[in-house]
Design a protein that fits this description.
6 strands, 35% strand, 6-stranded antiparallel beta sheet, alpha+beta
Length: 155
Amino acid sequence: MTSTSVTDLKWDLPNPHVLNVSVQDQHIDLMRHTNNVVYLQWLEDVAWAHSMALGLGPAEYEALGHGMVVRQHEMNYIQATRLGERLVLGTWLTQADKLTMRRQYQFIRLDDGVTVFRGHSQFVCVDIAQGKVRRMPPAFLSAYTAAVVAVPDSD
């Protein structure tokens, strides 16, 4: 399969926020595939891109004095990715409440449509100055809860 459109890809959930990347020389490790640390960076990159698309970027975090920080990542490497491969990083918010939110990720290799990575992250809201867990400001709660997509039951 040669997919050229993000809409042709088999996403786990509808309408992901996407970011396109290509595996570069600096991403490759001794095993000649993308190093696991790079995936962690890609999680952050696509999460920030999505948050900024929702109107909450670093400037808004700073102005509101609050931010969302990772409490837990779950990362599942399904297939190796290699130099020159084009990937589409997809993310969704799947839960948000006054203190926390949950984000789901799926990375698909564009050239063959194969899912190479899946993951989840749990975030908690903190007061930037004090570093303490706090309720989300109304702007966070509004933007993030509005973006939550339903996850079908696996039963």
